[in-house]
Amino acid sequence: MKNNPTFKSAISGLPFSESEKIYGKSIHDPILGLIKKEFPDFNDNDCIAVNELNVYRQKYISNYLSTEIGALSAMEKSVISSLKDDRSIVSTVEDEEESRNFGQRVADKVADFGGSWTFIISFVVFITIWISSNVLIFLNKGFDPYPFILLNLILSCVAALQAPVIMMSQNRQEEKDRNRAKKDYMINLKSELEIRMIHDKIDHLIMHQQQELIEIQKVQMEMMNDILDQIKK
């Protein structure tokens, strides 16, 4: 009986049956890259066995799955970091509210009080007491008889002082509104950019996965063809 012809593997140096012989030029590029990574001298004219090739095929699939899991984890970390940045942008608005000087705080307090029902009711009560005490108690011979010149002077002074204070507070309110609008714009812009970034990542992952799945299908088809060839022989 004649011995079956054999060949020597270029990577392990072991003899294998000639029916298991696979040339490097017939190996798919991703698998060939893994082989050359471990054996740089391997070229298209070298040969390996089907069993050895299957080991690298399995390694390629395992590397692909681990890479995809790592990519998803990195994307989750990026989203969490972006959410933290959003929170820091929003907090700057509150920080600016606390940086008012004494005059600005007084103007805000006066404007808040001057535009409330508390001020209106208090002022009506004050005027009523003033007029009643001069007319009914002192019979127009008290400290401010009719036509209440002193009261008119007080009201004029209050109006003269209150008007610029209210205008100052309105200017402060406009400034705060502009700052809030600016912060809203910054937050919306950041959110839009993050959404675009996430879309780009998802598109990249989908395209990458499609390409890798096609490569895996090709590898699986090659393995099935090798099995069928061995069964036929």
Automatic annotation (TrEMBL):
PANTHER family: INTEGRAL MEMBRANE PROTEIN-RELATED (PTHR41386), MEMBRANE PROTEIN (PTHR41386:SF1)
InterPro entries assigned: DUF1003 (IPR010406)
Protein name: DUF1003 domain-containing protein
Transmembrane regions listed in the UniProt entry: 117-139, 145-168
Superkingdom of this protein's organism: Bacteria
Keywords, in A-Z order: Membrane, Transmembrane, Transmembrane helix
Provenance organism: Flavobacterium chungbukense
